[in-house]
């Protein structure tokens, strides 16, 4: 999975490709244009001296927040005694908001705050959120009284829910700043104008990706085990303490950090194009775009010059010169950028519009992916999770680690072993195109849902026809089916993420104009957010539609038909495959002629 870098290099790890959006932008700025090297900025870079604080902060932050979020469904159902369908809906909404918030955080960071201040505020907000969440488990007055199997459990009070939601609000604020800013801030610490600085940036991405994956694995195993088998108060207190260490490490390195000033938001140029086109909507289309549209000399060494295309011609009106007073003397700039835009600006907006149909397929794709944090966990709770007889029991939320393992192991196998062979077959440097890899990921997610439906039907059948092995705290019988039967579907789901998620971000990165590449990460987070919202919407609709009779999503899965819910998502996935193929066939890559 190799692609040429902005400075002519090849990146060795897919993790780098996911994270190095700002790096190639910096390198393009150095090596682009006429080849003139810009003057070295008067900034003192400390490089690796600052990395223990940044990588340490990121590692402890991920250990704290990931270990908590992965097990929230179990916490809501077992400690707050929420119905499984309500907990799943709430968690979908929370995950969606957490994934949507980085868009706002990226805008505020780029336009006003700067990355250091955004990370400082976000880290403190995450710590406060973790503290409040720990208090809901540690203080008896902040959660319902514990109940035994078969007892009627009391509901949480409005005050208890208020404290819980306050903790969620602070965690969302933390996510808004940390997710979009942590990687670029780390890259800011290296001088992109020197060879050692460029090598340091690449090494930083490798270490970042490694610590990120390691933190996910530890969170999904050790921390979740403590929460599920030792104590919720201790299990949440450990991540809170780790989050505190993350804050301490971050602020300890303050004197070493390079803090770049905010550069402004690229969204302003987008809005200007729509505003100018709307003002001139009554004008006729130009007969000769080369002569009739405002196309001043392109002077940027960072942004690639885009030729005029014949798609979305209504936007071309934004570049029509309606009068001589709209252009400043010399003809290089408009008098009012809200009334006249350049062809370059218009074509950049067209690039974004062309991406939208392909991007929208990711929303439906994520409906399948998010099930691993909701109903897969609930299925695991009603399966036999013991290993080696009645000894060790796998925590239900830890099953997500199998998807992580599949994704982590597949990346080097594909990059090192398959890509060289695929090059010989396809004749393409990357083996498979970005759109082909996205399509494979969507298809694999549908296969995973089919497998999930089959396994869930087997689990339910065994629970109803054979002796059960216990009861959950919610009162549902535990099926004698070994929970490891769920591993294959999670492995396939992990493979689908390795294909789709990585190629998605790389696709946005390559197709979005260089100075708008911060939008690429926001688009991926927005996909995940809307996928969570759509999943929550489907859960609500199915629960209301089938609740009067045989509720598919009953509190006791043995009395429901979760397998039919999976079949429904698989059917939606088949529609998504067809829709994606149409979008991919229609798509025109950036730089292609009319």
Automatic annotation (TrEMBL):
Provide the transmembrane region boundaries: 116-139, 159-178, 207-226, 232-252, 394-414, 521-544, 564-587
Which Pfam family, an example, fits this chain?
A: PTR2
- Localization (cell): Membrane
Got a GO cellular component term for this one?
A: membrane
> Can the keyword Manganese be found in this entry's annotation?
no
Quote the InterPro entries the UniProt record gives: MFS_trans_sf (IPR036259), POT_fam (IPR000109)
Question: Could you tell me the superkingdom of the organism this chain comes from?
Answer: Eukaryota
Which UniProt keywords are present, listed alphabetically?
Membrane, Transmembrane, Transmembrane helix
Q: How does it sit in the membrane?
A: Multi-pass membrane protein
Task: Drop me one GO molecular function for this one.
Answer: transmembrane transporter activity
User: Which family would the database say this protein is a member of?
Assistant: Belongs to the major facilitator superfamily. Proton-dependent oligopeptide transporter (POT/PTR) (TC 2.A.17) family.
Put simply, this protein is called: Major facilitator superfamily (MFS) profile domain-containing protein
């Amino acid at each position: 999975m190799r692609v040429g870098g902005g400075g002519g290099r090849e990146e060795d790890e897919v993790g780098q490709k996911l994270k190095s959006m700002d790096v190639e932008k910096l390198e393009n700025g150095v090596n682009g244009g006429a080849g003139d090297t810009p003057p070295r900025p008067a900034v003192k870079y400390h490089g690796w001296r600052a990395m223990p604080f940044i990588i340490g902060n990121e590692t402890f932050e991920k250990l704290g927040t990931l270990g908590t979020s992965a097990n929230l469904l179990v916490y809501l159902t077992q400690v707050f005694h929420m119905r499984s369908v309500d907990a799943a809906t709430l968690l979908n909404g929370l995950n969606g908001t957490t994934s949507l918030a980085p868009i706002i955080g990226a805008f505020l960071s780029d336009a006003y705050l700067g990355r250091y201040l955004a990370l400082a505020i976000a880290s403190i907000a995450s710590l406060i959120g973790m503290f409040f969440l720990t208090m809901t488990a540690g203080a008896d007055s902040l959660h319902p009284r514990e109940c035994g199997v078969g007892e009627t459990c009391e509901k949480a009070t409005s005050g208890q829910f208020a404290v819980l939601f306050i903790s969620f609000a602070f965690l969302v604020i933390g996510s808004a700043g940390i997710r979009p800013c942590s990687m670029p801030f780390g890259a800011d610490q290296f001088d992109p104008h020197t060879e050692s600085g460029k090598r340091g940036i690449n090494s930083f991405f490798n270490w970042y990706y490694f610590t990120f994956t390691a933190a996910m694995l530890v969170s999904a195993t050790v921390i979740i085990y403590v929460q599920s088998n030792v104590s919720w108060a201790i299990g949440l207190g450990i991540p809170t303490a780790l989050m505190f260490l993350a804050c301490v490490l971050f602020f300890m390195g303050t004197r070493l950090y390079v803090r770049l000033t905010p550069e402004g938001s690229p969204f302003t140029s987008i809005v200007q194009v729509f505003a100018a086109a709307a003002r001139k909507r009554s004008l006729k289309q130009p007969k000769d775009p080369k002569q009739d549209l405002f196309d001043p000399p392109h002077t940027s060494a960072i942004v690639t010059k885009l030729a005029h295309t014949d798609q979305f011609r209504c936007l071309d009106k934004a570049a029509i010169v309606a009068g001589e007073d709209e252009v400043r003397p010399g003809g290089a700039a408009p008098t009012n950028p809200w009334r006249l835009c350049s062809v370059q600006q218009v074509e950049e907006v067209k690039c974004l519009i062309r991406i939208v149909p392909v991007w929208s397929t990711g929303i439906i794709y994520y409906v399948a992916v998010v099930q691993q944090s909701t109903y897969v966990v609930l299925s695991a709770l009603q399966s036999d999770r013991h290993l080696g007889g009645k000894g060790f029991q796998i925590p239900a939320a830890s099953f997500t680690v199998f998807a992580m393992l599949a994704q982590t192991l597949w990346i080097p196998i594909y990059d090192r072993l398959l890509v060289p062979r695929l090059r010989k077959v396809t004749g393409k440097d990357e083996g498979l195109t970005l759109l082909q890899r996205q399509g494979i990921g969507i298809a694999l997610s549908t296969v995973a849902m089919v497998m999930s439906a089959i396994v869930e039907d087997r689990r339910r059948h065994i629970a109803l026809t054979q002796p059960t092995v216990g009861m959950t705290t919610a009162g549902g019988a535990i099926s004698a089916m070994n929970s490891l039967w769920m591993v294959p579907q999670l492995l396939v789901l992990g493979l689908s993420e390795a294909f789709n998620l990585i190629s998605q971000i790389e696709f946005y990165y390559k197709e979005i104009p260089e100075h708008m590449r911060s939008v690429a990460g926001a688009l991926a987070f927005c996909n995940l957010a809307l996928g969570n919202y759509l999943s929550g919407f489907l859960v609500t609709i199915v629960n209301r539609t089938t609740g009067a009779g045989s509720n598919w999503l009953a509190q006791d899965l043995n009395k429901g038909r979760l397998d039919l819910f999976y079949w429904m998502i698989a059917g939606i996935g088949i529609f998504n495959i067809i829709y994606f193929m149409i979008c991919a066939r229609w798509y025109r890559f950036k730089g292609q002629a009319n």
